[in-house]
């Protein structure tokens, strides 16, 4: 409980510090269908999701071809949407998804909905660690680690692919957010953790995986 409290305080401090330095928030919206893909990306830094909405808050967004009845409810939002987006996207440079990932219930039956995500590109230290290798997270003297995100699996066939058989790197739809890195490393000056199935479980059997970590170094508040 103390670790969670410390981690939340550190991340809040990082957010406030960067916001005061003029880091801007971007907003991406996709209409609710099976083909539209929401593409979040950071040219520099990593994605940190600030807000996310699945539902409808106005009559204008994604209104083309819709009847007035399908746009009538402008107080419609799915609870828990931002948590789903944060688990999938925080700490990554690129994150692609559509509304299917948050469509676990219907917050307003008969209403045409959309997925809107507000995110910020935060400066971060980013590491990619191949399976069975060790991540070595370190900060300067007097600073501590504050994790933005960690994902274990494979989303790119070229990463950690040297001398690996094709069948071990072809599954690029395999990734899961892992909390253990934050549990082990947040609030410490340095931390070592192994990128392995024993540590994080196996999200895709037979695929050679890697651990992707994004963090910042802060002075304790």
What does this structure look like?
With 221 residues, the protein is an alpha+beta fold. It folds into two domains: 22-122, Sandwich (Jelly Rolls); 125-218, Jelly Rolls, CATH 2.60.120.740. It contains five helices and twelve strands. One of its GO terms (molecular function) is carbohydrate binding. This is L-rhamnose-binding lectin SML-like. Pfam families: SUEL_Lectin. InterPro entries: Lectin_gal-bd_dom (IPR000922), Lectin_gal-bd_sf (IPR043159).
Spell out the blueprint of helices and strands.
Layout: H1 2-20, E1 25-31, E2 38-41, E3 46-56, E4 76-77, H2 81-89, E5 94-97, E6 114-122, E7 125-130, E8 134-138, E9 144-154, H3 166-169, E10 174-177, H4 180-185, E11 190-194, H5 197-200, E12 210-218
Antiparallel strand pairs: 1-6, 2-5, 3-4, 3-6, 7-12, 8-11, 9-10, 9-12
Strand order, biggest sheet? Answer: 1-6-3-4
Number of strands: 12
Main beta sheet, described? 4 strands, antiparallel
* Helix and strand pattern: HEEEEHEEEEEHEHEHE
Measured by DSSP, the beta-strand proportion falls in: 25-35%
- Terminal CA distance: 17 Å
Q: What is the domain total for the residues?
A: 2
**Estimated structural class:** alpha+beta
Overall helicity: 10-25%
Q: Can you name the CATH architecture of the largest domain?
A: Sandwich
Q: Which regions have little confidence, pLDDT < 50, spanning 5+ residues? A: 1-13
Oligomer: single chain
**CATH H-level homologous superfamily name of the largest domain:** Rhamnose-binding lectin domain (RBL)
Global geometry? globular
Indicate the mean pLDDT: 88
